[in-house]
Each structure stands twice: as structure tokens, then as C-alpha cells.
Amino acid sequence: MNFSCNNKISNNQLLAVIVAAFLGCTAVSAPLGIIETAGGGACISVFLGGFAASIFFYILVRLTGKRITDSYQNVVYNSLGKFLGFLVLSAIFVYTSVYGGFQLSTTARMVHFTMEKSVSSLFAAILIVFVAFYTALRGRECVGRISEIAAVLMLAFIVFIFVISAPSMDLITLRPTPDEWRGILKGAFMSFSALSVAGYVFVMLPNGGNTKKTAFSVFLAFLIITVVLSFGTALAVSCFGVEESKRKLWPVIQMMNYTEFPGSLVERQEVLMSGFYVFSSFILTSLSVHISSVVLESIFKNINRVFSVLAACAVVLFFCLCALRKGGFEAVYSVYGFNLAMYGVMLLAPIASLLRRKK
Amino acid sequence: MKRLIGFVLILPFLVTGCGGNEIEGRNFVSTVGYDTETNNGYKISLCFIEPDGKDMYSAAKADVVSPTAAVTDKVLSSSKRQMYFGHLKAVVIGRSAAENGNLNEILLDLSSNGDISMDTVVLCAKNSASGIISTVSNSGDGLYIWDFYKNNKERLYSTQKLTLAEAVKKLDTQKGIVIPLVDAEDENLIINGGVIFSDNVKKGEFDNNQMQGFIYVLGEGKGRNETININSEAVPFNIEKNVSNVEFYEQDGVLKASYDISFKVKRSDGFNYPEEASEILSQQIKEKCLSSVEKLQYLNCDALGIAQRLKRQDNALYNKFYSEEMFKNMVINLEIHVEEK
Questions:
Q1: I need a labelling partner for A69 at 20 to 30 A (CA). Which of A93, A333, B41, B184 fits?
Q2: H helices of chain B, where?
Q3: Domains in chain A: ranges and CATH
Q4: Quick check: A250 contacting B, CB < 8 Å?
């Protein structure tokens, strides 16, 4: 564990950040469109896509990691020059803020619908941004340390849920038919795209220069997310069937309520699961605000740290408000499904290749 | 900065949920019943628990008429108390709603309600759902159905626990469903037998033996008792394991399904078991299973989910034989294996 205060994170913390930030959020947003596309074989789609994303990021980090000895932003400027660097970093800023804002809107809605109806979505979003402001201000080391705690708690709970739910799984529903394979492959691509949003972990890469170890941490993090996500999707489809899973807003979260705890210890466990999801969202929002703020600082030199974090918070909140507007939820899901994620891949891939070429 | 951080830390205390209804200001709905006896849509009967200062809580009943099957906290507009559906335990479909083909709408409305647990038990009333709700609300704390399933989890004799999740899943994937039957007699609830639905409409009923047979064919007989009669003496067996496997094949241009249903049973202490007991048991189980399958085939109700199984197990065979009458025309063989522990 890294106990110094040098605004650096270790490889283990990087792994924890990816798991904690993206496990909850992708569990909510990813399976929705994939179940619709792939039907009973959605879990296979998630696994194939997730595994491909793990390898994709492993290769990317291996290719670029050695170049990122300074901060990612400086390397982009040094590699691409001022104008191109400005364009790329601006795109990353918009992309990060939009994704963070949209994810925040989903969390705020979930708090409103699942946990406490008397708390408005907007109020919940503002509170999360307030906490994200503090975390982001403290830097990536703070995000890394919180993630270490969150990732362990989340994984322990999720594994427990899976262990008690697995015996009652309906394997017949999950068996794909030959005419579903086309949808499964399409779903795998969607799953790959959904996970590619994690691309902005490049800004969080440890500057240690040990590319092999860092790449392995990233690979492992994605693999953990993939396994948990595909198992969660399988359980949701097995519990509700394909059609009902499509109708549900958060099938994986709602599936938790169906799972019976031994000894009836907890009755509304979906609220517990939503709690972990909100925890994950706190980390993702903090990460979004942090990354947006450091990108902002590198675009506008000499900007005050507090001001940059505040500005990032305002932008994330703005996109969240847009998504919270009437009809915004559907728009968010349609963007989530494919476009935003693909934008992430397109943004990342050229950068990686450029970084490599300039070496 | 410190002031700002202090302000941020104080803010979460505002998210306590205080300001909503207190427990005393809510009615906790435990059971909902649906009838379609009026011209105005549904007659929805609610059994709810009213927390009060004196006895802590008491059960009551209310009837409302609604054009849709959706239930919300505003379903009882005349009451100042909020109707809370977060603790709903059972749904009863009345005979009229079952015969009028309202099952799908009712279950989908319930499953789309975020407050309602997908673990809610679904039952079908022999007569009116309102009558069942009256009996439930008059029998103590209004949680009779929930208690029945909770305390008899492993020992249900001729009924099964059908949850809202399972019911909706079956409606989506199968051409038929069997919903456990509930009846009220002299202020007592009787839960056994089943109501057969095909294409969303009630087509018939299972008696107790057929319901048991249906449960065995599904491979859900674990924990139940099967009693045989020898010389007017009842001799019980405890079923410790029940596994059901099905294979599909084509023979002489006919689609055939071969069920292999195996049991591991244990004798109870204090009874005299003759030598042929196992054989009699096996024969009795087979008769029950055959009776249930024949009835389902006669009504063309694929409550066993055979078409869905065939589609996933042998897609080519499914495509070859698929028709509206596929389940009805299929030849189903049952092989029963009883092993004593």
C-alpha cells in the first residue's frame, strides 16, 4: 500500500480504482442494451466483450506505458504539439465530464427511486458532487486509497450474493440458440465499447515506468469486472427471463432483491446493493472531476487548483442536469449504449499509436 | 477551505429521509387481490397492516375500483394514510380476472412497480379474490399467506411457491402457466391445487394429485411427503431428492419427449412398510405425473416449458416441429425411478 503523500498511486491502487469506479456503473448501464441485443446469451456477450477489452487495454498500456513517465497531459503535448494536444485534451475533458455527468444522473435517479423517494434526484447529485469535489481536490492518491477500501467491500458483497444465488440458476434460459449468435457477437462489441469508457485511466497511470506490472493490473481489473458483470447478467436473465430483464431499468440491481439471504438477515437487499452502487458512483464522479480538473489545468496554464476542481464540478453537474431533464434519461441510455463508448475507443487508439510513434 | 469542508460534511445529514410519512402514517399492504366484476375495470382489494399506538398493528381491508391494474400509494384516495407496497407479500388473482384474460396485465403492472418485490407470492382464487382478502385480513396479522409459505418452505404438499419473478418469466417464455390455487372455507384459507392458464386465460384446474404430479415433473418435489395407502393404512415417504431430465427425439415423424424423473426417498419411523412399498410408491407417483401431463396436453398448456427447453436444447428439432399445437401433439413418456435411502 502507498502511504506517501506524493499524488502518486501504486499498481494495486490503479487496479482498485478501475474496479471500484466501473464495477457498479457498468453493472447498471452495460447489460441493458446487451440483453436486448443478445437475448439469453447476454452473459456470453459480456464475457467476450469484457475479455477483449482486458486484452485491448493490456496492449495499450504496454505500448504507451513507458512513455508516460511524466503526466499523461504533458506527454500528449510533447508528442502531438500544442495545437493537436489542445484539441485532444479538450476532447478528453468533454468526454470525461459528459460520462461523469451522465453516470451521476443515473445514480441520482437510483437514490431517488430505490433508496429514498423524498430526496430529489438533483439534491442527491449535488451532494455527490460536493464529496467528489473534496476527493478530487486531494488528488488521485486520495481516489486510489478510497478505492482500495471500496473495491474490497464491493467484491466481497457481490461474491457473497453470487454464491447464494448460483445454485438456483436456470441454465436452460442461458443456453443460446443458433439464431442468437449474431446478436451475441453484436452484444460482445457493445460490451467491449461500454468498457472502453475506462480509457481515461491513462491519466491515472502510475509514473513508475514498470509497464509490465501496470499493464497486468489493468488487465486484472478488467478481467474482474468482466467476470462479475457476466455472472451478474447471467443471474438477472436467469431470474427474470430475457423479456422481463429488458423491461427492467436496472436488472442486475433488481435481481439482488430476488436473492434470498440465509436466515432472512436482510429483506430489501437491493437497497444494500444500491448502496454499493452509489459508493461506486462516488468514486467514478470523483475520478471524473479529478481528471477533468487536471486536464483543465494543463489546457489553461497557471489556473488555480481549487478553481479548476470547482469548474470541473460545475461542468459535470451541468451534464448531469441535462440528463435529469424530462426525456433525458432515455437519451442518456441511448448515448451510453454505444456512441459515447465508441467515442472513447476512437479517442484512445490514435493517442496510443501517436505516443508510440513519437518515441 | 475548512469552512467549505465543514459545510460539505454537514450536508449529508439532510439526506435522512425525514419529512416523509412516519410509520404511523402509513398502511403496509400485505396482500392484493384482483377481480373484474365491475364494468369500471378492476376491483382491487387490499389487506393492509395499520400500525397504531395501542396494539402496535392490526389488519384491515379496503376495496377500490380502478381502470388499470397498477397499484400506487394513491390507490386509496379517501384515506389520509399512505398505502405502502414495499412489504407486499402476496397477490391473489380472482376467478373473474383469470377468466377474462387479465393475468398478463396484472402481473406486468406489479413487476413494473419499483416498490414491489419480485419475491411476492402469486396465487389464484377459486372464487373471488375479495373473499380471500377478507379472510386474510380477519386471520390475525394479515400475513397468513406469507407465513404459510415461509414456515412450510420444504414441506409444501400439493402446492408450490410461485413468485412474481417466476410467473412473469413463465408468461414471457411459455405457452401456459400453473398458478397455485387458494380458497377460503369457513374463514380458513386452503392453499392446494392449481389453476391452469393458457394464452393468458384460465383453462382449467389441477386437483391435489395432479398438482403434486406437476411438481414432480418439474423436479421440485424435494422435502415433500408422498403417502401410499396399504390396507387402509397411510404410509408416508419423505422425498429427499427429485431430479427431472428431459430428452427430445423424433421417431416415425413424431416429436417425442422422454422424461427421466428420479427420486430418493426415506421411510418414516413408526410405520410398517411392506416389501412392495417402493413399487407402489413408484406407481402412484407415475399416475400423478401422467395425470398432470395429460391434462396439460389436453388443454394445450405448456406449463412445463417444453417448447422453450426444446428450442434451447435442440433448435433444429424445434424448428422442424414448431406449431401452435406442438405441445399438444407431442408424445411424452415418463420414466420414474424411486430409490430408497
A1: A93
A2: 2-10, 95-99, 103-111, 129-138, 144-151, 164-173, 208-218, 277-298, 306-313, 315-321, 326-329
A3: 16-357 (1.20.1740.10)
A4: no
What is the rounded distance in angstroms from the CA atom of residue A242 to the CA atom of residue A35? 7
**Span A239-254, mean pLDDT?**
78
Render pLDDT for B86-115 as a digit per residue (tens, 0 to 9). Answer: 888 899 999 998 888 888 889 988 888 877
Contact A89, A72 (CB under 8 A): no
Give pTM, 2 decimals. 0.81
Q: Domain holding B255: CATH number?
A: 3.30.300.210
Q: Which helix (H) or strand (E) holds A64?
A: helix A42-64
pLDDT in tens, A211-246: 788 889 889 999 998 998 888 888 888 888 888 887
For residues A267 and B83, give the distance between their C-alpha atoms in angstroms, rounded to a whole number: 19
On whether the CB atoms of residues A200 and A14 are closer than 8 A, the answer is no
At A28-78, the pLDDT tens digits run: 665 667 888 888 888 999 999 999 989 988 888 887 766 666 777 777 777
**Burial of B78 (C-beta count, 10 Å sphere; 0-12/13-18/19+):** exposed
A164 touches chain B (CB under 8 A): no
Give B7-71 as a DSSP string: HHHHGGGGTT-TTS--GGGEEEEEEEEEE--STTSEEEEEEEEEEETTTEEEEEEEEEEESSS--
Domain count, chain B: 2
Q: Which domain holds residue B286?
A: 208-341
| Residue B269: burial class (beta carbons within 10 Å; 0-12, 13-18, 19+) | exposed
Best A172, A238, A249, A267 member to test B by mutation, with max B CBs in 10 Å, is A172
H/E stretch holding B198: strand B188-198
Same-domain check for residues B202 and B69: yes
Chain A hits for B174, CB-CB cut-off 8 Å, are none
Whole-angstrom Cα distance, residue B286 to residue B261? Answer: 9
Judge whether A70 is closer than 8 Å to chain B, CB to CB. no
- Give pLDDT tens digits for B203-243: 999 998 999 999 999 998 888 888 888 777 788 888 889 99
| Nearest in space to B136 (alpha carbons), one of B174, B182, B171, B87 | B182
Same-domain check for residues B202 and B212: no
Is residue B157 domain-shared with residue B79, that is, in the same domain? Answer: yes
> B172, B191, B206: which is the final residue of a domain?
B206
Same domain, B176 and B213: no
Q: What angle do CA B178, B180, B184 make, to 5 degrees?
A: 145
Looking at beta carbons, which residues of chain B come within 8 Å of A241? 168-170, 172-173
Chosen for mutation from B121, B163, B312 (greatest number of chain A CBs closer than 10 Å) is: B312
What kind and span of H or E run contains A29? helix A11-38
Cell match 377500490: residue? Answer: B64
Which of B206, B234, B264 corresponds to the end of one domain?
A: B206
Number of A to B CB contacts under 8 A, please give it.
Answer: 81
Q: Considering the domain boundaries, does residue B17 fall inside one? A: no
